[in-house]
Amino acid sequence: MRRAEAPSWHEIRAELAIGLPFLAAVIAIAIGFDSGRDLEIGPAIVLVLAYGALSHVRFYAGAGHTVPTQLVFVTMLYTLPTELVPLLVLLGMVVGNLPDYIRGKLHPARALMLPGDAWHAVGPALVLLAAGAVDPVGGDWIWLLPALFAQFGIELVVSAVRSKLALDIPLRDQLRALEWVWLVDALLTPAGVLAAIASVDRPYAFLLVLPLALLLTVFARERNERLEQALELGGAYRGIAMLLGDLLEDADEYTGGDHTRGVVALSLEVADELGLDHRERHNVELAALLHDIGKIVIPTEIINRPGPLDEREWELMKTHTVEGQRMLDRVGGPLADIGRIVRASHERWDGGGYPDGLRGETIPREAAVVAACDAFNAMTTDRSYRSARSPQAALDELRAHAGEQFAPDVVEAIVRVIARELIDAADASGVPVADGRRLPASELAQAGIDVSSSSPSASSLS
């Protein structure tokens, strides 16, 4: 969704639920507390403008971004009337977004989000006012620690409310983004305190920290450009991987077609089930796509042999993982790392696999995921020399070889993923459907899948 579009009703509802309490809270703070400090118009205007400008200096990390506004925010807490700071922070956000509203980059209705974004200013202001610690000189600065905790706690609550009412982003992913925000805010807070201390006798001394803000702007622009270049390069490597996958599909319709797509889809679900990080998940995706790429060099008559291979043919077939790594090494870059995983995609947990006889935890984590998912997909797909097995039979086979051929925790993850898929496919009568046929409840029970609940039974994890 483009930011220039009007917010949806769900977004409006969420922002009203967050923003209206904010306005009530800041009005109550402004009326109920008195820091004893007069509002000086000149410094207030400069700080509000500086806050608005810094709100556009974005450092991207993971799925989110942060802005260095803490540098100015802390200065505002100690140099302006503390009870008015939350309102002035909101004003700074409005001023900072005005150019985007005028140019049409932001829809004006998205101003409804600003009160929710300004909630972070309420906690510190309330803590400092309640403690009477609004003078940066002396020991009052010690109250910044509980003030920061209040700031971070409120940001967490606001994120949880937005996650519940409007966003499709899981709260866990938002927490990862907030960790980066909190780190930057904590590191910039001391500089804001020093600027406030310098401004006690010289009202505009805080201007000395603005060159630091300019430096952060330069660093942010350079870092964002590097991230864009990295994303473009990553897209190019992904395109190369897709092209290699297409070549494999042309060479062997089974290996490069439905089989590969099925292995990729299941591998990604299992990676999420295991909680792999973003890099590991990306590696799993590309390795699942290219795990059979080395078969391009294997003669077609061996690939499509309807019966078992003889010893010479089998030894030749086993070279496809080494050939796959060799091809990806020639491409280089991130695909060279994928080559290492492709090479290990037929290793066994007990050390009896090929080509290197790796054992247990020495097998790359991503390779263990791809190997088990590859086996499950192969068992549940029609081949030229046999018919597909049922999901139950395939799961039984994986369990029988967990700890020998396959990583035990990967097998357990596959069981949980397949259980959910079968349950999600249930019709109104509650009878699951899979592979184009209905699976009797007794068959699912034998597989350790409890169709009466949304998760596998305990026996499925044993």
From TrEMBL:
One annotated GO molecular function: hydrolase activity
Keyword Membrane included in the entry's annotation: yes
Alphabetically ordered keywords of this record: Hydrolase, Membrane, Transmembrane, Transmembrane helix
Keyword Hydrolase listed: yes
Domain HD-GYP: residue ranges: 233-430
Residues spanning the membrane: 12-33, 39-59, 71-95, 141-160, 180-198, 204-220
InterPro entries: HD/PDEase_dom, HD_GYP_dom, HDIG_dom
Pfam family membership, one: HD_5
EC number: 3.1.4.-
Protein name: HD-GYP domain-containing protein
Signal sequence coordinates: none
